[in-house]
Amino acid sequence: MLKRKLILTTLICNMCLTLAAAAPANAADNAKFEMTEPVTEAENGEFTVTLRGQNIQDLFAYEVKLGIDANNVEVVKATTAITGFSVPPILKNNEITFAHTKVGKVTGEMGNVDIGTITFKAKKAGTTIINWTNIKIVDSSLDSKTFSPNASTNFIKVFGDLAGHWAKSDIMQMVDKKIVEGMDDNHFAPNMNVTRAQFATLLSKALDLKDDTENYPFADVASGSWFENSVKKAYAAGLINGIADDAFAPEQNITREEMTAMLLRAKAHATGSNIEDMTVKESIKFSDESSINDWAKKAVALAVESGLMNGRTESEFAPKEHASRAESVVVLKRLLTELN
User: Fold this and answer.
1) Could you say which DSSP state residue 139 is in?
2) Angle of CA points 199, 159, 308, to nearest 5°
3) Residues 174, 175, 179, 182: is their CA dihedral positive or negative?
4) Are 102 and 83 in contact (CB under 8 A)?
5) Which residue ranges form the domains of the chain, and what is each CATH number?
6) Are strands 126-138 and 46-59 parallel, antiparallel or unpaired?
7) What is the pLDDT of residues 124-170, one digit of tens each?
């Protein structure tokens, strides 16, 4: 009995790497594996998955491997209802290894088995993917067999201030594309205004604009500022104009008509076309049409006609109103959808 316990302890501590024998070919050929789906989304970022096996034959010990992105998620705990001794999860190179063994001269688990439950915590907002890549099963004779479940599941951590927000889905999709970020790990601030520099940066990231050494005329874009490179790239690509020959006003809140003009220039750049060559099929039908600046009227008409922009209401475009973070992300998502 003592010798058997020593063998099993060594087996677990070495994560089953020193097993010498392979299981008979028919030991568990019909075994199947699945992960339960966690709650789809949650604000606190904590979620649990259960690893299950079907048609299991004599499961005495096991070693499970899961693939994760350690930058996005961490392991809180791992448990199993199977009696015995467990080795806590070990993380290495974005792979989690969790092992467990029964103890003593007993038979292994049979039939449909809950192998283990693992609780994770998403570190930041967005979609987290957990992949169950491997399980090594050891029977009561210390023979082993390895399976590749190839099972995966997703969990979405949402920003706390997006609950019930009309733009939640679009914002979270753009977060997953690494184009937008929250104000912090738990807040997106969807109704906060967007500056001209912030929207230029969003366009630069969305279109993956390349660095450009071309001189730009804006004296108010300070060297070394967080937005300097994005403004340079957006200017070189023809996406932005200044409010004057030498001023971009990077920290000024962007208006809806300014955002529309930048959006249309981005579309023209991405498609290799010119706004001047685009044809407006329908006239603008907003009650505040007269308040749209002449330089923005064609861009507004084209954007509304193509579905890139909507009015603030059915009757008003609100060209001079400031655009919110939610609005800027939604129109950017529409642009990328149209381009793709």
Assistant:
1) -
2) 40
3) positive
4) yes
5) 2-156 (2.60.40.680), 159-339 (no CATH)
6) unpaired
7) 899 999 999 999 999 999 999 999 999 999 999 999 899 899 999 99
